[in-house]
Amino acid sequence: MFEAHFQTFEEPEGGVALTARLARFREELARRKLTGFVIPRADQQQNEYVAASEERLAWLSGFTGSAGVAIVLTREAAVFVDGRYTLQAAKQVDRKAWHIEPLADPPPEHWLTKHLSAGDRLGFDPWLHTSAAAERLAAACTKAGAELIAVDNNPLDQVWTERPAPPLGPVSVHGVQFSGEIEAEKLRRIRLEISKLGAEALVLSDSHAVAWTFNIRGADVSHTPLPLSYALVPKDGRPTIFIDHRKLSNLTRDHLEQSADVRDPDALVPDLTELARSGAAIALDSATAADALSRLIAGAGGKPVSGNDPVSLLKAVKNSTEIEGTRTAHQRDAVALTRFLAWIDREAPSGALTEIDTVEALETFRRQTCALKDVSFPTIAGTGPNGAIVHYRVTRRSNRRISPGDLLLIDSGAQYEDGTTDVTRTIAIGNPTDEMRDRFTRVLRGHIAIARAIFPDGTTGAQIDSFARQFLWQAGLDFEHGTGHGVGSYLSVHEGPARISKLGTTPLKRGMILSNEPGYYKTDAYGIRIENLELVIGTDVPGADKPVNAFETLTLAPIDRRLIDVNMLSPTELKWLNDYHERVNRAVRPHLDDNATKLWLDEATAAMLPL
């Protein structure tokens, strides 16, 4: 009945089977007179999702998470992961060959200072690290009396004999009916930012920035419509796009050539070198530009100006067309989600369903909208102890049957041409325990606190992150991830620069879309997360001294009432919940085509009353 077109459930290679690769890699390092090498989970543009040809960390270590780094020394090797992936890494990596270490506190450079010796030569690929990352590595090497060596070609690629070819996904035009702004106007705004930076040109090293600027989308990586590419935008004159011509149809080439010269990727280095020889100041994105670009510009006599890519912030603030598009996308997605949630409630109590069944069903309900382009990330469907793995991905081996008494955490999203969605619901299968209801209600109260937040213009995500944690903190609990991330418009589901987290220093601006997803995870028992997407909007506060902002909730899907301890909610929180459910019912019910699902929705969104 159901099937997944955009997701697979095969077990990645891992563990002891990969240890021979580590031995071959060490032989190659010895041949190059290197005593160590750093392998980030990254491509040249620091993308979250990378092409199969760029999965070096997974190929060598077995770890398949979206963030991490490996360091291989002559006698030691370590994989560094953040809190989301600690449990996953422990299952995927051969613990006899690799240590598993924290990615942030302390950072990998701390480990290096303790394991490098005087005279060691640590290699790195400058195309896979930002300049800031390279500087941190260099400082660690200096502290240990070692030397950091930038290699011309990656030694891992030398031993990865079956490495896939780079992708050639076709490029499409993202029409103005979706983008809301023509390329000429975007370029005008970008040039104003280049002038503010005091630069002669800007390198767009982030393919998302290229896609947004020139209103194109692609198919080079999973789940994000990304055309891998670069662009060089001068303060005056015509920009150049560097993209493999084999990706372009006559239509897309004509579209690009209306506003830019189109060159192959190999032309980037000579074109940038030529510009740098004039002594030009060239702006680079500190978050995505490879250290190799800074080295190239400086080596040719130019001045690399590293900082925040101005396109990142321009892209994050959605225009009215993009906002209406995402509202439409969420309305469409809500119908698919409701049909899915009703199906789960009918089928799961039998004990016959598995995690894979739920992933396949949800994707099928979304495909039945006839508008789904892809899922926006691999669906996280974890029941029981698997739900406690924050970024769990079900495989045929890990696939768990959903049993009465379990919680099912399902985090999923869709890519539609008019918008990108991301939603998490936690579902009670059978009767939840009092502890589950307590934890869920604390998470819900934090979610509501973010959704109801009113904050002055200029407020950052870090300033409101604790709103989501306060009720967990009161019980000595917390969660080890940010509360929210930015979301693109038919682009990345994880978009900077704004986020709601302890590290979110970018002010939240009207038109930004962010997730609101507090959670709680009890290792080896269950996981809870509630996620909606929120649009930053202006709001009127009588007597306010400055402009004030609030959130409009975009996601429309019932929150499981069986998991809510209504007596823990304040009257204001209860009103928010009932108003939200009334809005969900009003938006979704007219689009349902069967009475059984309509009746389920009526019950799932019925008003809750204090006991």
From TrEMBL:
Occurrences of domain Creatinase N-terminal (ranges): 21-153
Cross-referenced CDD domains: APP (cd01085)
EC number(s) per entry: 3.4.11.9
Keyword Hydrolase listed: yes
Domain Peptidase M24, residue spans: 325-536
Domain Peptidase M24 C-terminal: 550-607
Entry superkingdom: Bacteria
Recorded family membership: Belongs to the peptidase M24B family.
Protein name: Xaa-Pro aminopeptidase
Organism, scientific name: Bradyrhizobium algeriense
Classification of source organism: Bacteria, Pseudomonadati, Pseudomonadota, Alphaproteobacteria, Hyphomicrobiales
